[in-house]
Each structure stands twice: as structure tokens, then as C-alpha cells.
Design a protein that fits this description.
174 residues, Ribosomal Protein L9, domain 1, Ribosomal Protein L9, domain 2, 2 domains, four-stranded mixed sheet, three-stranded antiparallel sheet, 3 helices
Length: 174
């Protein structure tokens, strides 16, 4: 029986695929769970319209990603981190830190999982980081890590605290 898959079925087909499957498999599993529908001319027409809409959406997404990639190429992400001797950071710069700063600078949300850091950033200076916007579009961002300004230490004033005096309750005897 020929069916059109509405959802992805592992090891069988992806959503939108048309495939010949066993009659019992389609009647007992695919159709009752609404994973697929019988391939009728009307369903095939719906499938074709959906594929065209998907391709238009994909083209639009690619164009938006390319435009955003150009914006990111010109962006320098500056991060201030605490550092110790020899310009080594306490900890490292994470992809979440970079994503947060990109959102602040460009007002666009970037998923931290799409940021690809070749090696952990643990030193002050300039580093190149790539961001995978779509499967075909990748942007490279310059990340500059600077030392955080040390807050001035205020002289501590030690005040002697006087112990609280406890007053004993006087018992009146009659």
C-alpha cells in the first residue's frame, strides 16, 4: 500500500515522503497513529503544495541567515572577564556568554548550541568563533576578551561590637 508520511518514522521514512509499505503495517500502525495517510491523488496534491511552501520558506530563511551573517562579520564581541597572572582567565568564555553578548549587541537571538568554539577560550585577547546559522550559512565573529577592572579595595573599618547586655529578670517574692 502506498502511503504519504505526515511525521518522521525512525528507520522508515521522513515527513512528506511517499513510500510503499506492507498493508498490515499501514492499517495497524501508521494510519491509526496518524503517522501517514493513504496516497490518493488529493493527498499527493497536498504533498506537492507543502513541498513548494517548504522550499520557499527555506529560501527565505537562507536569505535572512546570510544577511545576519554579514552583520555578524562586522561585529566584535567584547567580553570582560577576571584574569590572573600571565593573562589566564579564571574559568573560560562559554558559548552562552558569547550568545548573550551577541543578543545585547544585535538584538537577534543566537542559540548557544550553534556557536562553535574550536578550543576553550581561557586567555585574554582576540579569538575567532564560528556560528552555524543554518546548514549552509556560517558566520565568523571576532571575540575580544579583556580584563575586568579590579574594584578598588576599600579600607575595612573594624567596629568593635559590644556584646548585648542581658538583663536578668528579677523575681519578686511576696
Amino acid at each position: 500500500m502506498k502511503v504519504v508520511f505526515l511525521q518522521d518514522v525512525p528507520n522508515v521514512a521522513k515527513a512528506g515522503d511517499m513510500k510503499e509499505v506492507a498493508d498490515g503495517y499501514s492499517r495497524n500502525y501508521l494510519l491509526p497513529r496518524k503517522l501517514a495517510v493513504v496516497a490518493t491523488p488529493a493527498e499527493l496534491k497536498k504533498l506537492e503544495v507543502q513541498r513548494q511552501a517548504d522550499s520557499r520558506r527555506e529560501v527565505r530563511t537562507e536569505q535572512e541567515a546570510e544577511a545576519f551573517a554579514k552583520v555578524l562579520q562586522d561585529t566584535t564581541v567584547g567580553l570582560k572577564m577576571r584574569a590572573g597572572t600571565k593573562d589566564r582567565l579564571y574559568g573560560s568564555v562559554t558559548s552562552a556568554d558569547i550568545a548573550k553578548e551577541i543578543k545585547r549587541l544585535t538584538k537577534h537571538e543566537v542559540d548557544k548550541h550553534t556557536i562553535e568554539i574550536a578550543q576553550p577560550i581561557r586567555e585574554l585577547g582576540s579569538h575567532q568563533v564560528s556560528i552555524k546559522l543554518t546548514k549552509d550559512v556560517t558566520a565568523t565573529v571576532n571575540v575580544v576578551v579583556e580584563q575586568e577592572a579590579e574594584p578598588e579595595t576599600k579600607p575595612e573599618k573594624k567596629q568593635e561590637k559590644k556584646p548585648a547586655k542581658k538583663q536578668a529578670k528579677k523575681k519578686e517574692t511576696a
